[in-house]
Amino acid sequence: QVQVVESGGGLVQAGGSLRLSCSVFGRTISRAWVAWFRQTPTKEPEFVATMSPSGDSTTYADSVKGRFTISRKYAENTVYLQMNSLKPEDTGVYFCAATRRALAVTMEYYDYWGQGTQVTVSS
Question: What confidence category does residue 43 fall into, taking pLDDT thresholds of 50, 70 and 90?
Answer without folding.
Answer: confident
